[in-house]
Structure formats: C-alpha cells, structure tokens
TrEMBL record:
All copies of domain RecJ OB, residue ranges: 466-575
Domain DDH: 90-240
PANTHER family: SINGLE-STRANDED-DNA-SPECIFIC EXONUCLEASE RECJ
UniProt xrefs under Gene3D superfamilies: 3.10.310.30, 3.90.1640.30
Family: Belongs to the RecJ family.
A single MF term (Gene Ontology): 5'-3' exonuclease activity
Protein name: Single-stranded-DNA-specific exonuclease RecJ
Keywords in alphabetical order: Coiled coil, Exonuclease, Hydrolase, Nuclease
The keyword Hydrolase belongs to this UniProt entry's keyword annotation: yes
InterPro entries documented for this protein: DDH_dom (IPR001667), DHH_sf (IPR038763), DHHA1_dom (IPR003156), RecJ (IPR004610), RecJ_OB (IPR041122), SSDNA_exonuclease_RecJ (IPR051673)
Length: 582
C-alpha cells in the first residue's frame, strides 16, 4: 500500500513507507531507549537492535578498526615502505585520477613528509593513458625510483608492473581482482579473489590507512615513532564518501572521525577547497560527496590529472588556494559539458526504455571525463544500474554505476573474460570498460542479462522511500542533531526522509534561479520552512506555486539552516502530493 495513499505524486512517484516488521522494531526501540520515534524509525530501517543502539550512535574506531594483518600481503607491504623510509630510498606513488586515488596518494605523501621524506606522485591522463598503470609510465618511474606504490589501481596491471624492472612494486587497491595477481612484491586488496570479502567495502584510501597503521606498529616494535594517523582521517573520510563506499561498520566510524578532523581546518588543501565552495559550516558527508568531491575530481575529468592529488597533499595555504580556485573553475566547465551529455544520454535511454535491468547510452564524442557522472545521474533517476559510453575511432570508453545489491564490477569483469569487452573492471558500485563499437549492442545485452540475474530492475524506478510521518512542530533543531548521530548517511545508509502529512502551504515563492522557498503549518501554530532546489525545472515547482494555500503531503529531508548565527530547521523538499480531498 502506498504511504499516505500517494500512488503518484506531483513528480509521478509512488511513496513507500516502512513495512510492518520495521514499524514493530521502531516501536520496540522507542520503548527500550526512550529516543524520539523519528530517530527509532531510522535506526529500525538501518537494522539496529536495542542492544546495539549506544554503540551505533557513538561508533568508536578502536572497536571497529580491523587488524591490518588480516589482509594478505599487508605485513610485507608495510615492511617494504618502512624500509624505504629508513634507507632514504626514492619512492614513487602511482595513483588513480579520482578522489579515492588522490586521497590515497595524499595520505602517503603526508605520512612521508612528516618523516622528512618525499615522494614522486604520478597520475595518468584519463584520455591519453587511461585508467591504471601502463608499461611506459612504470618503466620510466622504475628507472628513477627504488619503490613504486600503486594506490587505487594495479590489481589487474600485469604487463605494466612487469615493466617496472629494477624497482619493487607494492599495490594498495580495492578493485576486483582476477584469477591471477601481477608480479608485485605485495598486492594488498580486500577484493582479491583469495580474500574472505569481510573488508570488501573498504575504499583504497582506507586500505592505505590500514597499511600505515601496520607500518606504525612495525616502527614502534623497532623503537621508532611514526606520525599521528588519526589526524589523517579527513582524507579517508573524503575518499570513502566520494567513492560511494557503503557507510557501514568501520567505514562509518572512519567517516565520522574524519569529519571531526576536517572541522578543525588543519589541512590547507581541504580548507582552500571548502572556501572556494563557499561552505559556511563544517563539512558533512553530503558536502564530501556533492561539493568537495566533484571539485577534486574535476582535474582528472577535464583538466590536469594530478591536480586533485597535489591539492590534497599541499602544505602551503597560498599554493593550495590557487589550486582550489583552478579546480573550482574546472568543475564549472565540467558541469557544462556534463549537462549536454546528460540530456543526450537520457533521451537515448528513454527511447530504449527505463524499466530494463540496465539503463545505458552511448554517443560519438562524449567526453570520457563526464560519462561516469552521467551514469550516476541515470542510476539515480531510474533506480537501475547505468552505463554511459563515449565513442571515438571505432572504440567506446565508458563508466557504470550500480545500485545496492547488484555487483556491477564482477559482471563487467566477466564480460571482459568472455571477450565482449577490450577490457573492464571495477568494484560493486562503479566500473569502467572499453568496448569495440561493433560489439557494443551485443555487450550491453549480455551485461543486462547478467545484471538481471542479480535482481536489477525489480525495484520501482519511481518509488520514494519515507521513514516516517512528522508534524511540523516536531521538526526541531534537537531532533535533527539526534538524527545526525545515526549518520553519517550515504551509500548503503540513505539519509532520513520524512513525510509532513496534510500540511497547509502557507508560503510559496520562487527564489534564485528556479528554486522554490516554501513554508507550511499544521493549523495549530507550528510552522516549518523549506527549500526545493531546481523545483521550477520539474513538475513540482509550477504545481505548488499554482496551489499556494492548499493542503499537501510533503516529503523531504530535515536539515539545520545556519543564517547569521540563527539556527533553525528547514525541509529540503523532494516531493509533494495533494492531500486527499483538499
């Protein structure tokens, strides 16, 4: 049954509320803890039992951090890095061009710098070199360095690592491994095929952090003192959220602690980035994924590939400011390129049908730096795995994004093994591929078949999930602060969404460029303000504007609005439906 009877909202979505069992669990939590019903509804949805509430609301990293030695090759990798530091060897870091790669490289650079050591950072050009180590680059690095550490890449790079003759290679990665590993000194990867999979949800920066924990342990055993690793968790948090790693277990603790570190504004690169993005409050997980992350990524997408890594590793505030401004400019350019590709991709996907197990689109000349973002937008709009491919010279290079419960990386890797792709790989939620244009349709049909076997396409594309109903008077600053303790929210742990039932729309005006400012009340004196960004470009804005004063069910997320020192709650409106009979 549709929640509040909303079968088709103003944006055409069906509202879905908690099931009977979840409602029972929420009530049991209220009785056992005395916490607000709204918070208990969220905890029940996240599967938190009564005995786990305290530990969940206050996650401790010391309780959740796994033993680094539980990962294969970890002791070897850490020992080799420590030896390189002690012997003053020449070290190179080969990193992927995204946020996870840049954060991983910055972690190593920062750790080495605090011990008086330096490292060469090499980030391949997305267009000219593609993802991961290549033989030419590795051969050149090996000629000038004693140790090469590949971060967020390298697990499938057999030829490239073999080309690094004369240097030791250590791989710290999280992408899905193949049947065989490259001939590196150590390959630390929770997604190796011979791993248990217990830590498969870690991003590469978290793997690097665990290696530094193990390195610190080995240094202490030798009577040496290493850098403060807790102060580096801001980079781990940024990478975890930006790489859409599920926010559960240790990932949640890493992000929670990392946000606290970030709030201290001690890292020049992140301070400069927050300032150019005009963040007026300490960053939240939302800001990492949608404000800071895209700017760090912009260099790798359409600019200089190593710019994001250099910014995150930068110790000079003046230099950091200049790089942040350049990344902000590149991000604006990226949005313009993305908008044109997104419109064309959506039209193409709609023509194929948005209810298939896989939503995909391909076009000549589509910039390879934005196809991943466009795939993410298609996935969000359809609740289906999505792949977007740029075609050029008889070949297509694409990126895909998946939904919870569907392992896209494994399916794409299987396609590559079957010969339908030139190459492909990734992890559960994101993957990349290269395909001959002549085999594109065949490859996408096979990928759709593999994803359908995992259950892709079964969820309603238009479903809007709601945690609970909330009256305007119950939406307080205190409640939002309590809800934030159940976070951070993101991949695998969606933020709370509430319905405001049968509320009178007392104020409704367009503000800025197509946004809608609203206020609603319950007829008993309680008032709640709200904002809906981009509303006038959707059916929501015109429909609400035409019914100012009418009664609606409203759905959205609660947030604290800090304005000139005054803190108040506002609803970030996502959807609405006319209240029955009004």
């Amino acid at each position: 049954m549709a929640y509040l009877g909303v079968e088709s909202s103003l944006t055409g979505r069906r509202w879905v509320g908690p099931g009977v069992e979840q409602e029972r669990q929420a009530e049991a939590l209220v009785q056992a803890t005395g916490l607000p019903r709204a918070l208990c509804s969220v905890l029940a949805r996240l599967g938190v039992g009564s005995a786990e509430v305290d530990g969940f609301l206050e996650p401790k990293l010391r309780d959740l951090l796994p033993d680094p030695r539980s990962l294969k090759d970890m002791e070897t990798a850490a020992a080799r890095v420590v030896r390189a530091v002690e012997a003053r060897e020449r070290i190179a870091v080969f990193a992927d061009y995204d946020v996870d790669g840049g954060s991983s490289a910055a972690l190593l650079v920062d750790w080495l710098r605090q011990q008086g050591r330096a490292a060469t950072v090499y980030v391949p050009d997305r267009i000219d070199e593609g993802y991961g180590p290549n033989p030419a680059a590795m051969r050149a690095l090996a000629g000038r360095h004693d140790l090469i550490v590949c971060v967020d890449c390298g697990t499938l790079s057999h030829d490239a690592i073999a080309a690094a003759d004369g240097a030791d290679v250590v791989v710290l990665d999280h992408h899905l491994g193949g049947e065989t590993l490259p001939d590196a000194l150590a390959v630390v990867n929770p997604n190796r095929q011979d791993e248990s999979g217990d830590l498969a949800h870690l991003c590469a920066a978290a793997v690097v952090f665990l290696m530094l924990v193990e390195a610190g342990r080995q240094m202490r055993e030798a009577g040496l003192r290493g850098p403060d690793l807790m102060a580096m968790l801001d980079l781990v948090a940024l990478a975890t959220v930006a790489d859409v790693a599920p926010l559960k277990g240790v990932n949640r603790a890493l992000v929670r602690q990392g946000l606290a570190v970030m709030a201290r504004r001690a890292r020049p690169g992140l301070v400069a980035l927050a300032d150019v993005a005009r963040l007026e409050t300490a960053p939240s997980a939302y800001h990492l994924g949608y404000v800071l992350g895209p700017r760090v990524n912009a260099g790798g997408r359409i600019g200089k590939a190593d710019l994001g890594a250099r910014l995150l590793a930068c110790a000079d505030p003046v230099e950091a400011q200049a790089m942040a401004e350049r990344l902000d400019q590149l991000n604006t350019e990226r949005r313009e390129i993305e908008a044109s590709v997104r419109a064309a991709a959506l039209a193409q996907a709609e023509a194929r049908g948005l209810d298939a197990p896989l939503v995909w689109a391909a076009g000549e000349g589509w910039h390879p730096g934005v196809v991943g973002i466009v795939a993410a937008r298609l996935k969000e709009a359809t609740n289906r795995p999505a792949v977007v491919i740029g075609l050029e010279g008889g070949e297509g290079k694409g990126s895909g994004r998946s939904v919870a419960g569907v392992d896209l990386g494994a399916s794409i890797q299987r396609l590559a093994a079957e010969g339908l792709l030139i190459k492909g790989g990734g992890h559960r939620m994101a993957a990349g591929l290269t395909v001959e244009t002549s085999r594109l349709e065949e490859a996408m049909a096979r990928l759709s078949e593999l994803l359908e076997r995992q259950g892709a396409g079964q969820g309603g594309a238009a479903d809007l999930r709601v945690d609970a109903a909330l009256m305007p008077g119950a939406a307080t600053v205190e409640l939002v602060e309590q809800l934030e303790r159940a976070g951070p929210f993101g991949q695998g742990a969606p933020g709370p969404r509430f319905a405001i039932p049968d509320a009178r729309l007392s104020y409704c005006r367009e503000v800025g460029s197509g946004h809608l400012k609203i206020a609603c009340d319950d007829g008993m004196g309680a008032r709640l303000e709200g904002i809906c960004f981009g509303a006038m470009d959707t059916p929501l804005g015109p429909a609400l504007s035409a019914r100012d004063g009418g009664r609606f069910h409203l759905a959205g997320r609660l947030e604290i609005n800090d304005f000139r020192g005054r803190r108040s709650v506002q609803l970030r409106l996502e959807d609405a439906a006319p209240a029955s009979g009004k």
